[in-house]
Amino acid sequence: MKTPSGIPVKEVYTEPVNRPDLPGEFPFTRGIQKDMYRGRLWTMRQYAGFSTAEESNKRYHYLLSQGTTGLSVAFDLPTQIGYDSDHPLSEGEVGKVGVAIDSLEDMEVLFKGIRLQDITTSMTINATAPILLAMYIALAKRQGADLSQLSGTVQNDILKEYIARGTYIYPPQPSMRLITDVFEYCSKEVPKWNTISVSGYHIREAGSTAVQELAFTLANGKAYLEAAIKKGLGINHFAKRISFFFNCHNNFFEEIAKFRAARRMWANTTKALGATEPGAQKLRFHTQTGGSTLTAQQPYNNIVRVSNQALAAVLGGTQSLHTNGFDEALSLPTEESARIALRTQQVIAFESGVTDTVDPLAGSYFVEALTDEMEAAAGKYIDRIDALGGAVKAIETGYFQEEIAAAAYAHQRDIESGASIIVGVNKFVEEELPVSGFRVDDAIRDVQVKKIQALKNKRDQPTFLAAMSELDDTARGADNLMPAILSAVEAYATLGEISDKLREIFGEY
């Protein structure tokens, strides 16, 4: 027997385990807080966003009314790659996989009735992360928020876009400049903001193994640390604001071991780069259950899959969790499936008993051995990446992409041969009635286009032109871009106008 990553599983584990480390102590294998969920539960953060800002705002208020404790914004594809809704390439995609945000005006509507200082918000955005973050900051300022208390996360992880996801705009070097400009700006202006969420989620969704997800994510995290140090940021300060975003798939024990190994490996990585404060050595992470594990066949089976994955994430010590809707292999989640997904977390939190003690599986011969095996296997990948010159060089040579493609092919081959069983897909198959899904009307593009036209007609043109000129000058120079982007956003420049200005100067990749 082997795990999906190929690690051999013994029939029984009997070797005694003697580990001196305790929860909340270096290297944090058993958790980053000594009391973990006895002191505070993980944030129940349901990923949501679709159609217009008005419609997504309704869903956010619904989720908050149902007990979610943090917001997580999904943006549509045009927003992710820097196109306004009226761009020809946006046709057919506006509001489909997330909410359409074209300007600060849309952001104002998206969070209507929600005080940003009172919640934490995660924004899954990368190439256009500085622009969306600037919109969020501009709105917080208008609400009278104390920016020093503003809390949340912007994904801002461009390296995994080149590896696995594809929503990049600019070449790697100017993209890294934008990312480190966000690091520097927020360290001074929005000190509680997590300026990057290094994402293994999308690496896993692209077909990697758990070991590859662990290794490639930590390698990217190391590259960002090194870039921040080069920018002149102190590691003891900056590393406290870096967070991670992991996937959780079906193999229960491998996923738990992955999370435990990740904390230990990151603690040692940060220490080797000079971090001396515990807060700078801790790996804090959000988890999302595995979207690619959901099946269109017998979709109600997905409720069980998501429950299994969520429990593994909690036992692995996550700080924040999103549970997928059972219908997401078919469509965006309905209100019903989103509620069931949230209730899954609440049942685990309040009924299962797994929050009563820290690291309940510690001392298990199997879990401890598997944690060591995950660390060793991921360490071999990281050594190879270091030998290639680091994560950026490994991306440029195609190393990550080739390794993930090979793993994805092997997994698909196992499904088709029956070596890997997917219930309802290649075993226990049956005829079934269709499940109605959630659909976004294409007509919402017309709504967005009219809003953009109205915005451009009423905004103060001299202020807009001055802000765009400032953005041009700053992008051609070496100063931090965030103040210029914020000025452009506050002058109601659209996301597409700002992105096009940067395309003009940086080029496209």
Could you explain how this protein is built, in words?
It is a single chain. This protein has helices at residues 53-65, 77-80, 104-110, 129-142, 159-165, 172-189, 201-205, 210-230, 235-238, 252-272, 278-281, 301-315, 335-351, 365-387, 391-396, 399-417, 444-458, 461-476, 482-490, 495-506; strands at 43-48, 70-74, 120-124, 151-154, 193-194, 196-199, 242-248, 285-289, 320-322. It has 509 residues and is α/β, with parallel strands linked by helices. The protein has a nine-stranded parallel β-sheet. Helix 10 crosses helix 14 and helix 12 packs across helix 13. The two termini are 43 Å apart.
Q: Summarize this, please?
A:
With 509 residues, this protein is of the alpha/beta class. The protein contains 20 helices and nine strands.
